[in-house]
Write a structure and sequence with these properties.
Number of helices: 11
Low-confidence stretches: 336-361
Strand content: under 5%
Order of helices and strands: HHHHHHEEHHHHH
Largest sheet: 2 strands, antiparallel
InterPro entries: GPCR_Rhodpsn (IPR000276), GPCR_Rhodpsn_7TM (IPR017452)
Helix content: over 70%
CATH class: Mainly Alpha
GO cellular component, one term: plasma membrane
Number of strands: 2
Membrane topology: Multi-pass membrane protein
CATH topology: Rhopdopsin 7-helix transmembrane proteins
Keywords: G-protein coupled receptor, Membrane, Receptor, Transducer, Transmembrane, Transmembrane helix
Number of domains: 1
Strand order of the largest sheet: 1-2
Main location: membrane
CATH superfamily: Rhodopsin 7-helix transmembrane proteins
Amino acid sequence: MSTPWDFPSYVSSVYIYLAAPPIILSVGIVGNAMAAVVLLQRTMRSSTSSMYLIALAFVDTIVLLTGLVREWIKYGISPYREHFGYWMMKPSDVRDYTDAGCKLHMFILYTTIHISAWLLVCLAVDRVIAVFIPHKSKLLCTHNVTLGAIGVTVLVCIALNAHFFVTVKLNTRSGYSWCATNGDKNSTNAKWKKTYQIIDAVVASYAPFVIMLSANLMIIGKLMLIKYKRGQMVSYSSSNDSKLNTMTAILLTVNFVFFVTTCPIVVLKKYYTVWFDLNTWEGYMNNELAFAICNILFYLNSALNFLLYCISGPRFRREFMVLVRRCQGRARVAPEELSMNGASTRQTQLHSQTVFSVADK
């Protein structure tokens, strides 16, 4: 009798879930934490873009911890340990312990996924305003307006996903439990699930992509127009061409990465029953591999946002290097502090001045 491990596609899916999540989690959590620390510096936090990016780093971290950790344990660690005879925790899905956990986990995961996508939209709109109407940006892009935009985004996403507290439940049968739709396939909740899949695809991927692409194309067009006008001036240099090309590449890369990482999973959720024959072992295992690849791509987006939106910015890089130099300065003077316990008060004062002078560089 065949088992899942007899099919290369299933074996590949398990090893994908085993290998990729720890790498993505490490890069994403460390990167988001680093981004938040830099963006919270005095010279950075005054920017409205920084406020969006701080919120994005926090939300993306929640997405990784609630979503990717679950995938890693359920589809990677547990099947591997079971196959090779190691002890494993059951149930392997965090959703399958309590009814409250089932509802709450799905609510938090989908809510944060949607918030993340629309924070990127808010950031794109913020940039459009800064480029097209810079004289009004100080009125339209204030801290209060930014906080309001973040607050509205959070509230709308919460309202959109509050249905999980009604539409899903923990089902139990013959000692097994699983988190699924609250009702049979003909129930209202089952019909709503099909509708929600479309809403989720639009909210999590399609609509943000279209808006972000439109906004970034507008920015690129405006920058090219500025380049053309300044090209008539003697003072225009080739360095401006380089900056424009770099900005254009960054903006288009941001859109490309978002689309490539978020679109496959929402499309697969809609059409997997059409593309794969789930009544056969081979079709079912190919479906498992497709979901493994698309899920990993999706969570990769939450790990890469800080790279695309922070590391690509020269201001962020400058502040990051300042922070690194401060940490290096403190590390260099730390041993000296230990050797000065018996020194005079005057020496201590001089040493303190040295510490501050190094930290302020």
